């Protein structure tokens, strides 16, 4: 609650390189009907590129209150960029895109300049960029209003940061970037998700491994619903 108004709560599933189309649709069929529609709750699912179109269709057909996102997008516009998925094409299916994830920074050499170009592409095509940052010192593009604080030591390790520490980093980020919404990412589970969302400076969670199991993910959503 901020100033008497309920803050937005973002609960974002990042499937990474997992799930066939069949598995993706089974996940949607399980989670979709269980999500209660609320204006301040933003439940987002980010499948692999090959799953996105079918997931979007399933969400529309089921009229589920789920937002479809991508795990990345190209820093370039349409053209001769083999293998890239452009914002102009992705905007048919997604409303959010995860950008600058630590795995992409580490494994694919993405830097702040490239991430800024991706943010520009996303904004130009009405896709909300969710920029992942590793600390309060990480550069945030001016056009960005949504970030996820994901300390490297917590990503995929099972050792989450403390809610107190995450809230402090989020406060530092917001002080430097007024109007910013900050999520926490890194070993989020049904047991700890609410403790992050309850913090004053945090507006949700970016969920990796625990988002793959639909039951586990729905527990996270349920635990965060009444914050």
Write the layout of secondary structure elements.
Blueprint: E1 9-14, H1 21-31, E2 41-46, H2 49-62, E3 67-70, H3 87-90, E4 96-99, H4 102-108, H5 112-124, E5 128-133, E6 146-149, H6 163-176, E7 181-185, H7 193-197, E8 204-207, H8 214-224
Parallel strand pairs: 1-2, 1-8, 2-3, 3-4, 4-5, 5-6, 6-7, 7-8
Helix pairs in contact: 1-2, 1-8
List keywords for this structure.
single chain; 227 residues; alpha/beta; TIM Barrel; eight-stranded parallel barrel; 8 strands; 35% helix
Written description of the protein model:
This protein is α/β, with parallel strands linked by helices and 227 residues long. The chain has one domain (9-224): TIM Barrel, CATH 3.20.20.70. The protein is built from 8 helices and 8 strands. An 8-stranded parallel beta barrel has the order 1-2-3-4-5-6-7-8, surrounded by 4 helices. Helix 1 runs parallel beside helix 2 (49-62) and helix 1 (21-31) packs parallel to helix 8. It is globular and about 45 Å long. The termini are close together. The model has no long low-confidence stretch (mean pLDDT 94).
């Amino acid at each position: 609650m901020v100033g008497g108004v309920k803050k937005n709560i973002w609960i974002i599933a990042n499937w990474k390189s997992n799930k066939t189309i069949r598995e993706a649709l089974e996940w949607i069929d399980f989670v979709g009907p269980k999500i209660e529609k609320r204006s301040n709750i933003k439940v987002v699912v980010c499948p692999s590129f090959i799953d996105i179109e079918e997931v979007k269709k399933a969400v529309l057909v089921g009229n589920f209150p789920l937002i479809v996102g991508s795990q990345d997008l190209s820093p370039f516009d349409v053209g001769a960029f083999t293998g890239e998925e452009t914002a102009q094409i992705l905007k048919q299916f997604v409303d959010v895109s995860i950008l600058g994830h630590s795995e992409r920074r580490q494994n694919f050499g993405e830097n702040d300049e490239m991430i800024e170009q991706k943010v520009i592409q996303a904004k130009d095509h009405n896709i909300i960029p969710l920029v992942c940052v590793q600390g309060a010192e990480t550069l945030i593009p001016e056009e960005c209003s949504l970030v996820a604080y994901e300390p490297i030591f917590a990503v995929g390790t099972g050792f989450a940061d403390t809610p107190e520490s995450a809230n402090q980093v989020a406060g530092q980020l917001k002080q430097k970037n007024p109007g910013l919404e900050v999520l926490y990412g890194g070993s989020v589970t049904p047991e700890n998700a609410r403790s992050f969302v309850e913090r004053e400076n945090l507006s949700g969670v970016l969920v990796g491994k625990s988002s793959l199991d639909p039951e586990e993910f729905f527990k996270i959503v349920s635990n965060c619903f009444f914050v």
